[in-house]
Amino acid sequence: QVQLVESGGALVQPGGSLRLSCAVSGLTLDYYFIGWFRQAPGKEREGVSCISSSDGSTYYVDSVKGRFTISRDNAKNTVYLQMNSLEPEDTAVYYCATSLVACGVGYAYWGQGTQVTVSS
Questions:
Q1: Above 80 in pLDDT, residue 69?
Q2: Are 60 and 47 spatial neighbours (Cβ–Cβ below 8 Å)?
Q3: Are 84 and 65 in contact (CB under 8 A)?
Q4: 53 or 26: which carries more pLDDT confidence?
Q5: pLDDT of residue 29 exceeding 90
Q6: With CB atoms 3.0 to 4.6 Å apart as the test, which of 9, 31, 49, 110 could cross-link to 115 if both were Cys?
Q7: 63-91 CB burial, b ≥16 within 10 A, e <16
Q8: Residue 92 in contact with residue 61, Cβ under 8 Å?
């Protein structure tokens, strides 16, 4: 059974940092593209970042470029999202998902999400 479990969400002040983790079980992470998504209240889900399975290429939505960093530790079957210089607009539930196809498509497995709230 494939499971993705996100953690690390919290309430943080603007300008602060958080590191989200996505622990994956039931599959070998080496072969999968991993994406981070977020959904704010009343808004559609948005792709935030993705890391490829092959060469570790990374992709970011424009609004987080320079502030967020995605990384993976295949030995631990875990993917991370380091979020710096957080802004109130980053408030959302963050999800991770896996794809065998490519970044941006074919996400088959999803986690349950972790809440990130940026507020003073």
A1: yes
A2: no
A3: no
A4: 26
A5: no
A6: 9
A7: ebeeebbbebeeeebbbbbebeebeeebb
A8: no
Name 109's bridge partners. 98
The number of beta carbons lying within 10 Å of the beta carbon of residue 40 is: 14
Instruction: Determine contact, residues 83/89, Cβ cutoff 8 Å.
Output: no
List of residues 6+ apart from 48 with CB closer than 8 A: 35, 36, 37, 38, 60, 61, 64, 68, 81, 94
β-partners of residue 19 are 82
Residues 105, 107, 112, 113, CA torsion sign: negative
Residue 28 binned pLDDT confidence (cut-offs 50, 70, 90): confident
Strands (E), 28-67: 33-39, 46-51, 58-60
Cβ-Cβ contacts under 8 Å for 23 (sequence gap 6 or more): 4, 5, 7, 76, 77, 78
Tokens of 63: 């609004």
- Give the Cα-Cα-Cα angle 35, 56, 118 (nearest 5 degrees): 40
Q: Would you state the structure tokens that stand for residue 118, as one six-digit string?
A: 């940026």
